[in-house]
Amino acid sequence: PRAQNHVTNVLLGASKAPEALQHLKERSERLSGSSLLNLRYVTLKMQLGELTEKDLDVRGEALAKQPFDAQALMALRQGVDWCVEVSRGGACARNFLRLLSYMDGSSSFGGVRFYERLASYLKFKIYLYLMEPKEALNYALEAVEKYSRAETSLRVVAEMASAGLYGEALAVLREARVLLGKQKKSSLKRSYSAYKSELDRLEEQIAL
Question: Euclidean distance between the first and final Cα of the chain, in Å?
């Protein structure tokens, strides 16, 4: 699957998106156990504006049965980033939520810590883009708790504040302070005081 994924990238780099899509269609059907190729196919179809509801359901059902692949999660994250930062279309955001629901119910992805924390963060990003504050806050709190890393907490707070959800950002910030106090000092990439100062700065800016 990784070799076929590389071929896809080469075709896309040469501005041959239709050829890349056809390549993914054929290879994902031949290598039917590849969640990576399946996700790349769905995402590219979405980017080309060719994804139908039937496509989404057929591929989503297949995805739920395919084995875990860390590179598939990278493709998923890149797809969501494209959706909320480039495409800026509500339909693709809803499509990714449906894909995530299939993966949540999968025995291969659901229950895997690496997937679960990423899924929470991606759902936060999607609901933030859709400007659904309640859902965005729920998944933001879920994400910072599952990651339990100061860097993730800071990023989530900053993203929420940048979207204008100041009350929600402060709620996440309060949780970030609690998690920072629990995180082992040896696991911090910077000093505890540096993170505390950054949280103080963010709180001050949000409160303005």
Answer: 50
CA gap 89, 82 in Å, rounded: 10
CA 53 – CA 97 distance, rounded (Å): 13
For 131-173, the pLDDT digits (tens) are 999 999 999 999 999 999 999 999 999 999 999 999 999 999 9
149 and 113 Cβ atoms separated by less than 8 Å: no
Q: Is 131 left (phi over 0), alpha (psi -120 to 50) or beta?
A: left
Q: What's the rounded Cα separation, in Å, for the pair 171 and 160? A: 10
Q: How far apart are CA 157 and CA 111, in angstroms?
A: 26
pLDDT in tens, 101-110: 999 999 899 8
Contact between 116 and 138 (Cβ < 8 Å): no
Burial bucket for residue 12 (CB in 10 Å: 0-12, 13-18, 19+): middle
d(CA 164, CA 66): 39
Burial classification of residue 181, based on how many CB atoms lie within 10 Å of its CB (0-12 exposed, 13-18 middle, 19 or more buried): exposed
Name the nearest CA neighbour of 158 among 189, 115, 128.
Answer: 128
Dihedral sign from CA coordinates of 53, 101, 88, 36? negative
pLDDT over threshold 80, residue 89: no
